[in-house]
């Protein structure tokens, strides 16, 4: 009887241990995602509040976000783990407040460019939000808490978009007032961040060690030994294990490099990672400039706009599409690249329609289709990559893929959008983005056909023998 009571008490204690930080981090993610003004950012900058020109916004201001995101991502990625997440989350909250305070009161191109830099820090530090929870809960809770954190941000963004649309369409609120509401929400998130428990470990630099083996690694090595990608990566010598989990900064960097080499030596992982980087580059670029295209098709100064509801609908349908992936029964190792090619071609068609149509509702529909397809495909790519990796290696691959995507986006922005190079108008830009996704479709169609033919040939050979 005493044993049963003791067991129940232990289970209650463990439940409280993981539930408290999970609830707090989800509340933080929810409130910092409630940004009613974000779907109306371009109309706000072009409107009477800031009185900027299209060329200033598209070709001088927006590119700064891309450049700052790229420059900050790698040092923030390392600092996040080294500082154990919470300090970086607090810094993200401060950056949110600075960004929206400046959005309210800053004037002129230079000030708004600095605002874009601070927002680049906000997006670069998202890795802290998504990684924090892994340092304060046990491994068997990873899948559960990941879904909670993702859902919190999706729900927050959807709620924010709907609130923004209702304030504009029904309440006739000014775009300035939307930014005030956003500032209040991100300030609440900042206050919540101070109450997050400080982690005692992190994925790379501060791993807990017990008898030469990290607590987390006991699970990881047991799983990794049965994975084709990681089957030869076991450490049998205790000295090697201790060196592997040294808290020294240089040792951690060297281990990261070794993991990087091993991860990307896998053909399937490399293929999915290439699509991830290429598609994410195009996705971020389109998200950055879609409002500009809509503003040209239907100016917000003369007509009612529905950017908020479009963002909300596209987010909800994208989440449904991502959820539906779990019920699709298909061998992604064989047919995955052909599926990527087909859907990338549909995305290219949607972008071409969005570029050539002068009907705002057609543009909205094309954008919704684009976001749904991207969320569907990125979910497939995510679990195909994660299936062969431990949590540490997944974090590394995610960081590297995102960095490559930003590097490509920086090159695309510099050539296409930046006023110092081509500085193309918004319609020509979207024609290039449509062509970009068509090129991705061709690359993966050729690769997919080669893989299917090779698979059939191997099957026929094995049947003959």
Q: What this model shows, in words?
A:
By secondary structure, the protein is mostly helical. Helices cover 77% and strands 1% of the residues. The chain has 17 helices and 2 strands. The chain has helices at 2-33, 41-46, 54-82, 86-105, 109-124, 126-132, 142-169, 175-193, 215-224, 238-244, 249-263, 267-297, 307-324, 332-356, 360-386, 391-417, 426-464; strands spanning 209-210, 213-214. Strands 1-2 form a two-stranded antiparallel ribbon. The longest helix is centred in the last third of the chain and has 39 residues, at 426-464. It is globular.
Secondary structure layout plus pairing:
Layout: H1 2-33, H2 41-46, H3 54-82, H4 86-105, H5 109-124, H6 126-132, H7 142-169, H8 175-193, E1 209-210, E2 213-214, H9 215-224, H10 238-244, H11 249-263, H12 267-297, H13 307-324, H14 332-356, H15 360-386, H16 391-417, H17 426-464
Antiparallel strand pairs: 1-2
Helix pairs in contact: 1-7, 1-8, 3-5, 3-16, 4-5, 4-6, 4-8, 7-13, 12-14, 12-15, 12-16, 12-17, 13-15, 14-15, 14-17
Keywords:
disordered N terminus, 17 helices, single chain, mainly alpha, 465 residues, 2 strands
Compact description:
The chain has 465 residues and is mainly α. The chain has helices at residues 2-33, 41-46, 54-82, 86-105, 109-124, 126-132, 142-169, 175-193, 215-224, 238-244, 249-263, 267-297, 307-324, 332-356, 360-386, 391-417, 426-464; strands at 209-210, 213-214. It contains 17 helices and 2 strands.
Radius of gyration: 24 Å
Q: Note the gap between the termini.
A: 63 Å
How large a portion of the residues is in β-strands, by DSSP E? under 5%
| Average residue pLDDT | 81
User: What can be said about the biggest beta sheet?
Assistant: 2 strands, antiparallel
Major sheet: arrangement of strands: 1-2
SS summary, helix count? 17
- Give helix and strand order, one letter per element, not per position: HHHHHHHHEEHHHHHHHHH
Number of separate strands? 2
Assembly status: single chain
Backbone shape: globular
What's the helical proportion of residues? over 70%
């Amino acid at each position: 009887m005493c044993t049963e009571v003791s067991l129940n008490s232990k289970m209650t204690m463990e439940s409280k241990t993981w539930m408290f930080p999970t609830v707090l981090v989800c509340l933080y993610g929810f409130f910092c995602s409630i940004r009613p003004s974000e779907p109306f950012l371009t109309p706000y900058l072009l409107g009477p509040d800031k009185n900027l020109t299209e060329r200033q916004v598209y070709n001088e201001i927006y590119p700064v976000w891309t450049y700052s995101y790229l420059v900050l991502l790698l040092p923030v990625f390392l600092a996040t783990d080294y500082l154990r997440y919470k300090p970086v989350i607090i810094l993200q909250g401060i950056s949110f407040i600075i960004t929206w305070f400046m959005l309210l009161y800053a004037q002129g191109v230079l000030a708004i460019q600095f605002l874009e830099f601070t927002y680049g820090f906000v997006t670069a530090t998202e890795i802290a939000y998504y990684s924090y929870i892994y340092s304060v809960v046990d491994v068997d809770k990873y899948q559960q808490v990941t879904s909670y954190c993702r859902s919190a941000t999706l729900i927050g963004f959807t709620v924010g978009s709907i609130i923004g649309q209702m304030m504009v369409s029904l309440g006739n609120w000014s775009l300035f007032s939307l930014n005030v509401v956003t500032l209040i929400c991100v300030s609440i998130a900042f206050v919540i961040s101070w109450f997050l428990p400080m982690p005692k470990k992190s994925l790379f630099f501060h791993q807990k060690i017990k008898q030469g083996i990290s607590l987390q690694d006991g699970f990881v090595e047991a799983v990794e030994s049965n994975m084709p990608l990681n089957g030869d990566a076991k450490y049998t010598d205790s000295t090697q294990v201790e060196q592997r989990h040294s808290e020294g900064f240089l040792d951690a960097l060297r281990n990261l490099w070794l993991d990087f080499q091993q991860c990307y030596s896998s053909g399937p992982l490399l293929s999915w990672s290439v699509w991830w980087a290429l598609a994410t580059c195009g996705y971020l670029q389109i998200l950055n400039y879609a409002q500009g295209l809509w503003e040209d098709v239907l100016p917000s100064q003369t007509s009612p706009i529905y950017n908020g509801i479009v963002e909300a609908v596209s987010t909800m349908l994208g989440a449904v599409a991502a959820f539906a992936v779990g019920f699709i029964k298909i061998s992604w190792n064989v047919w995955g690249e052909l599926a990527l090619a087909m859907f990338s071609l549909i995305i290219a068609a949607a972008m071409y329609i969005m570029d050539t149509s002068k009907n705002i509702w057609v543009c909205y529909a094309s954008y919704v289709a684009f976001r749904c397809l991207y969320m569907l495909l990125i979910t497939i790519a995510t679990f195909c990559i994660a299936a062969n990796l431990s949590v540490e290696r997944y974090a590394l691959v995610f960081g590297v893929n995102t960095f490559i995507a930003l590097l490509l986006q920086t090159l695309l922005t510099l050539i296409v959008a930046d006023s110092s190079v081509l500085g193309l108008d918004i319609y020509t830009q979207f024609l290039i983005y449509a062509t970009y996704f068509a090129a991705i479709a061709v690359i993966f169609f050729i690769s997919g056909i080669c893989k299917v033919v090779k698979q059939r040939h191997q099957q026929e050979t094995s049947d003959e023998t």
